[in-house]
UniProtKB/TrEMBL annotation:
GO terms, molecular function: 1,4-alpha-oligoglucan phosphorylase activity
Name of the molecule in the record: Alpha-1,4 glucan phosphorylase
Role summary: Phosphorylase is an important allosteric enzyme in carbohydrate metabolism. Enzymes from different sources differ in their regulatory mechanisms and in their natural substrates. However, all known phosphorylases share catalytic and structural properties.
Top EC class, one word: transferase
Protein family per UniProt: Belongs to the glycogen phosphorylase family.
Entry annotated with the keyword Glycosyltransferase: yes
Protein species of origin: Sporolactobacillus kofuensis
Enzymatic reactions: [(1->4)-alpha-D-glucosyl](n) + phosphate = [(1->4)-alpha-D-glucosyl](n-1) + alpha-D-glucose 1-phosphate
Lineage: Bacteria, Bacillati, Bacillota, Bacilli, Bacillales
Amino acid sequence: MDLSKRKFKDDYKKMMTEVYSMDISEAEPTEQFFVLGNLVRTYSSKNWSHTNQVYVENKQKQTYYFSMEFLLGRMLKSNLLNLGILNTVRDGLYDLGIDLETIVQMEPDPGLGNGGLGRLAACFIDSMATSEIPGHGNGIRFKYGLFKQKFVNGYQVELPENWLQNGNVWETRKMHAAVTVRLYGKVWLEKTASGVLEPHYEGAQKVLAVPYDTAVIGYKNDVVNTLRLWSAEVPAQDESTDYWSFIHQRNQIESISEVLYPDDSNYEGRLLRLKQEYFFVSAGVQSIIRHYKKMRVPMLHLAEKVAIHINDTHPALSVPELMRILLDEEKMDWEHAWNVTVNVMSYTNHTIMSEALEKWPIDMISTLLPRIYQIICEIDRRFTMKMSTLFDPSIVERTRIIECGHVKMAHLAIIGSHSINGVAQLHTTILKEKVLHDFYLIYPSKFNNKTNGITQRRWLMLANEPLCNLINRKIGNDWETTPTELKMLKAFRDDEKTLIELAKIKHQNKERFAKHIQKTMGLVLNPDAIFDVQIKRLHAYKRQLLNLLHILSLYFQLKDHPEADLHPRVFIFGAKAAPSYTYAKQIIKLINSVADLINQDTTIKEKLKIVFVENYGVSLAEKIIPAADISEQISLASKEASGTSNMKLMLNGAITLATLDGANVEIRDRVGSNNIIIFGLREEEVYQYYHDGSYHSKSYYDRNPVLRRVLNALIDGTIPDAEAEGRSVFDSLVYYGDEYFVLRDFDAYSAAQKQIDQLYRDTLKWQRMALINIAGAGTFSSDYTVQQYASQIWDVFSRIRDI
Ligand code: 26W
């Protein structure tokens, strides 16, 4: 948008008076933030309503991205950037004596997601608006986001994250768009005069779903899409309602949108979670249908105007919910309704971890959602009948939705969608050949790959302005909207001046991060050290332990040979563990204890430091990633579906140290083997071990003296104050089979780390690698990812520009 500095300053002062009846000089940073947020809203509001109007006038097909999680991060700067007024506003505020960076910190970071899946959804809505795709988010307005993590004596402690405490400037409550969601009760079918079955309900609990809409602003293109998050409320009561029963009911209902489940890759079969899933799915589908009906297009054509995307299985009840509406309310017959439903729905799988696969006990589903359960049974019956005539009975048995008293949500999503995709090439191959092989035999053409992506706006333009400035000076700024243009940087691969500039920027970013750590943790970091970063949820398969064991081996090497020629290292960890995941929490405690041991040992001459940041999330990621030299992507091959921090770190010039897992494979293909450090077991080798059962972790302990010393340190008192945790981890690795092959990959990992120690000393060589990584990262922009979803799955194209 066009905005002069003078106009902005006038607007800002005026808004300050309107909202707080105050002069700017009297306002606190929180108030300064709130006023700026309000002003940004007014700046985007015209385009918001205009975009919606255009969509309606053109009867354009719309995509709805259904996701339990949207891990948005702070929105002020991202909105300013996308409106094209970031610098104007920064300068204007400066004139008024206000520092933009200070007020940015006043915004709470909405943690409405656990990790990769939620952050991907946030990148996607940003990219859809930027790519002019009519695509909107649909989810839950959790009152409490992911818990706030504190370390108390090295242990993770979870605190509530009350992000809405001071209100949320970005949202608008849309009371007129509220819908009713029904839970429990009884339902039976009665034949009507015309012979069709009609459902009758009795005694259902009604929940009012109230939407809160947030503008999703496209990058300098006047498009504003919508993120709609639902809040659960008590419907209006009639006069006869007893006061106490009302209070009881209110508590029950409001608990639905109260708190995000803090589980990542671990399914918990709790009733409240099932309620949450049906709640936002039912509200979302109802509101889509209500909107569609205004267009007066026959319901049979729904799939020409609406695409619903099921982000992992959490919204899989969209399938029976749409069926319910088409059958019961729109009076469509089963075949037509099913055809429409399958054409509307598409599904993404985000994990092969079997413990993450949702399956609900049938008595839970049938009690909570009686009509939905009937429909699921009928889908299952028809699927089984049809497939029995075509496929081997054992295949049909394994692919049914209802099995052993449970409803399998992945099966429901697959059968009810026209497209099933994995999130990286390797992951999709594993789905087709292993995890979902039976379904692949049945529906080969439904399967496809869409490699994940990240938005370069948040992860480069906002997080790393110095690097952006350098890039723009070298190759111009076409890459902002055509990120593959970053490849032009390759022309500077042998340009010493550019490489030195790159090194300087990284150094500055490291200094900035070091300052932050000194301020928040009191730890002094040496910016000349290698900053080695592993930031992701704590999970055994991601193998933070492999990193930790290697750190211990370096520590012992330095204890034995204080003069050893090791380049100084700072190991940076950021990770939350699911509160119920005991093993992951033990690893957190262990890392913290090893950090105490190493950080306080003056005999190793500051050569090693460990920083475990508390409460890792989007805001911290934005600080850490630009300062990273090494990106640790060391999951056991086959287990990480894609990973997305690998892409963010590469884009910021970190060198990837990785197994051939998830999108690491594609990163290697992009930058070439010379510009990435690959180590460890391959996916085929892992499966071979599973097949022949020949892995015996204890033999690695017995035969490898370095490893033995490191492992013994876990149980011999070397690590202060972590006996129980050390013992538990030791046993899991040595005696209980080492499920994720940590000991098997230890030597290969150590060798790779040694190679890095050498490589880093040659600054030009290192920065050349960094440059090639930045130049190759454009392909991993989520702009391209959503464009592929739009053309190959959703069949929606932008027509905004045509009018
Ligand atoms: C039911 C509990 C539960 C909650 C979340 C099960 C599974 C999940 C997610 C699927 C976990 C997740 O975030 N998966 C990650 O998705 C990213 C985006 O596709 C991938 O990059 C990561 O590799 C994958 O672990």
